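Consider a typical record:
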Amino acid sequence: MSKGLNRRDFLKGAVAVTASAAAAAVLGGCDQAASAGSSTSGAASSSAAASSAAQTEAAAGPYLEYDLCGKLSMSEFEASTAQAQPVENFDEEESYDVVVIGAGASGLPAAIAAYEGGASVCLLQKESTATSQGSVSFILDEERTNEAGKIGLLYDLRKWCNYRSNFELNRAWADNCSEAMSWFVEKLTESGQVEGQDFNIFSEGEYHYEGGGEAYGKLYMCTNSYTGAITTLGEYFKDKFTMHFKTPAIQLIKEGEKVVGVYAQKEDGSILKVNASKGVVMATGDYQNNEAMVQKYLPDAAIFDKKQFGRTGDGHLMGMMAGGKMQNIGHTKMIHTKNWGGCSTLMKSLPFMAVNKNGVRFTAEDIPYDLRNNFVKNQPDLCWLSIFDANYQEQYAAMGYSARDISTPEQIAESGESKGAFVADTLEELAEKMGIDPAALVSSVERYNELCEQGFDLDFGKPAQYMAPIQQAPFYGLHYEYAVSAITSGLVVDKDARVLDENGQPIEGFYAVGNCSGPFYGSVDYPLDIPGLSISRAITLGYVVGKTLSQS
């Protein structure tokens, strides 16, 4: 079978807590509904909660780690807006059909779709605007894709996820992707973004599966990134239904086994109770900025810088407090380069010789881009330095790729050192510019050239077709540092995005989409075989849940 939609080929085709009283309070919040205050109005809860916490801390003295219901430790709440102790009072109350928590690439589409379906909607966002991340999204073209091709693609997606993904959840994406992404483009057009060419198709590709299956995909590029697109869309819809910004959700409300609303804290510290008659949709993003959660669920990502901010696992914690199950370890990480070298996006995947900051070669270089973090994690400064010479375009073509897909010498020079692109007439000069030991680099290159001449990489086993000697000036170096882009694991959901409890049963009235849900993937690293899948998944399943709730 052919993996025709891998990124390269696709583009070629185009807090701690005190013991005793505090622990008991937390346990109560975990095992029973946090809906006290439903018959109370106007009691100021924030100051009372702060006073109670301070008294408890003073009485108990040293902090102790307390395991919450066997699955949560209070240190996980330190960075989060989620509140472990039960909310006892509130200041205001509002009621809607649907409440969405989080205004990102999954939450905003869910809110808009529910609104357009006739539901009354409240969107809660802890930031000052709607916001997202990423730059590309994938759409499966239903008109040119047959069922065999779709199933074949999903089969391979599960394989790329080490057979740990939920096939039915993957299929929910594939079955609705075309409709959802087309709808999303319509919404962008309404907001004026498509007309300005801020959002367009920049590549297309085919996928062929054994047995005659064919799938056709298009890759949408958002030139100003999805941060701009989602922010603009949020502004466009903010007067059409209720949006509360700078109002983070702090705790879900349950009546019996059903989630019926959420408590949120407004900017002035007052507590808002928001009732939801049809459902609460959790769309709060990942937990990369919650150090305790990263150390617990994904320690491999702990040493890397984080590209995002405010991703503190709020939804995960609120969801588990309400009885939801967290996806089993290990979680899927998306660790990519912090910088692009100012060059073609494919330059980050070059199989040319690579060294660390000490000038020492440390691995075979034909490693897929999405897996390289597993090798740089043991290297100084967590970086990958790609070294090549004046013949790199011809060498790249000889490896079976199109030289037109990588930057020209002029483009590399224009990118400049501030973006991690270096050019020099000698290897010694290149090493000095890149801040590495000249003698070490020269020695590494000499050894590498010997291996190229022998025709086999006796050091790391890289296939001969990727062994390209470094001999002719000018010499080039690209400096790539790695950081966490996203953590794509969360609350376990079914194909309808309903959050499941520890027994695998759906919790009534509770849904999760985007990066606070799973297991859409399951592999150690986010697979890049379908480019733009992350944003596409977020938009698609957000849209589906919003539309479904409006019709319930």
The first helix runs from residue 7 to 12. Residues 192 and 413 are 36 Å apart (CA to CA).
